[in-house]
Amino acid sequence: MEPTRFLSGNTSTLCIDTANGGEILYWGRKMAANAAVKTALARAVPYGRLDKDTPVSLMAENGRGLFGSPGIEGHRNGQHWSPVFTIDEVQETADGLLIRSEDRAAGLRVVSHLLFDRDSDVIRLSHTLTNIGEGAYDVSRLAVTLPLPERANECLSFYGRWVYEFQQHRHALLHGGYQQENRRGRTSHQHYPALISGTTGFGENHGEVWGAHFAWSGNHRMRIDVKADGRRVLQAEALYVPGEIVLQPEESVSTPWLYATWSDRGLNGMSQQFHRHVRRQLLSFTPAQPRQVHLNTWEGIYFDHNPEYIMQMATEAAQMGVERFIIDDGWFIGRNDDTAALGDWFVDESKYPQGLEPVIAHVLQQGMTFGLWVEPEMISKNSDLYRQHPDWLLQLSDYQQPTGRNQYVLDLSNDAVFSYLYERLDTLLSRYAISYLKWDMNREVVQPGHQLRPAQTRQVERLYQLMAKLRAKHPNVDIESCAAGGGRIDYEILRHVQRFWPSDNNDALERHAIQRGFSYFFPPEVMGAHIGAKKSHSTRRVSDIHFRGITALFGHLGIELDPLQASDEDKAGFSRYIEIYKQHRPLIHEGTLYRLDSDDPQAQSITAIVSADRRQALVAVAQLAMPTWALSGTLRLQGLDPQISYRVRVVDAADNFRNGIVSTQPAWVEEGVILTGDWLQHAGLAMPVLDPESAVLLLLEAQP
Length: 704
Known about the structure:
The chain is α+β, with helices and mostly antiparallel strands. The protein starts with a strand and ends with a strand. The strands form 8 sheets. Strands 5, 6, 7, 8, 10, 11, 13, 14, 18 and 19 form a 10-stranded antiparallel beta sheet that branches. Helix 10 (508-519) runs parallel beside helix 11 (545-553). A hairpin with a 4-residue loop joins strand 6 and strand 7.
């Protein structure tokens, strides 16, 4: 068996030594295979340590003398708690490597899948642990481990809360390390499961970075440890409740997938590789299925449902250019506020005496498709379902758990619950012409018990199964993952949904940080981005239509309003951005995204999308606060063809763009300008001076 294997993509190479438990020797710039690599990278053995070098193996076994966080923790009746695995088979596949290893003394087998998407340079790693011994094996932890080089001495992580998701935080990786945990029962607003490490001062366009995303919609832990010898180790795992994973003989448990990629082109290079992988490997729709403009009724009418009024809303929405009309919370029996009725997924005949058919028929007649809000995993105690089945709660029956938004969680491990939810959703999708479900989850999980046994992991797995079963029966129905905004966003749930709602916050100013954080791992077409009301419902901040409209363009556009209450001026503003979105939709959803550097990074956010053929680009410059200086520096663009000449023009800006806090804007704003991509990247354009909380949209087009 050849001990050293090489996997290479377009820009990177991964080299693994499959002897001694399996150790990744190198992961970085693309290199030719070389048999001398193992000798060249063999480490010294310092005094004061063990007499033998210790690899960071695939399972990170402390039994080898690693002295770090092991890849597996468990025991068999108090024994076999420090396993050491020996690789006995390596299979090369079209996608990468399948590595089998065993600890015969402990009665354990591990199958590791190390896959390499050569087109995007994204690797995937997962382990499956099987009990091949006698008696049960209690698994406390099972983690995926990747070594990082010593020069990876900074870490970028993400934190947040409701209406404040995807915020960024930098850490030095010099000693100790960094760890984040999520125990909220879903991916969470607080700790998005991703870490980015890199060389000192890495940025959007420079530095080596190693990005990692853990594809799991439940409790997780991610960490980067700095060992005393300087090596860095990245680890990710699903967090198990004590006693949750007990393997009987021949039973198995698998880790979720860890996705990772290396780039020497900074964060933009990393993001573009993840985006390419998502688009080609994870999305269940194609560019031939354009992302329709949404109108969601929630911020327009909340729980006040009147079919005649809603049909008038639909008429106005269609005239504004909306393509999908969505009825949000409040359509089902007894749902007049957020204290009752979850679980009773039957149309409320007191609100809709003729059912939903007349409303849906009217929506379709206007040339739109129809969508509906649901929250299947939840139940209200004030509901017919709870009165009939109080034992269907996900709970420990000896305790009274707290409510969240006045609701509780259903136990998906209960086959009767699973069947009921499938039947209700299948009936709705079969009876009505529904093309989209907004699938919400508005509370976190406390004491996830099934018949007194822990069931947190099983709850997440059953959710995936429910979504998969519905999609198999109704493949043309889009599902949006919403969990009080951005509480359930990850690559695994993306296998089952077609859209994310990154935040309940439609405030354009707050959305810039949220959408920027989201963009590191996800392309624009899966990000719900809505133009909200002039006065934000979440922050009460007032923003003009230009700032709100330009902010929402670089995603999957929607609007939130009651068009019957909106003024003609407001509706004209919404319609304008719907038209701009439709005009540039192929570019936005198929192009390459760049987060551009600004000379005033504390006050500006700049985003560009460049077409695949590099003949067109759309650029949004957002002024988030007062300019730090009287002039705003230079706009330098990325991704253009250096030899092509581009005409630059302003597509949209605030009404006072030319007479705000500036006497005159740069000459090119009025006269236009034609420059090569080389000039635009290295010399750039004099930046317009913008009022705080405003934006300008630019279009670059290649000239004959």
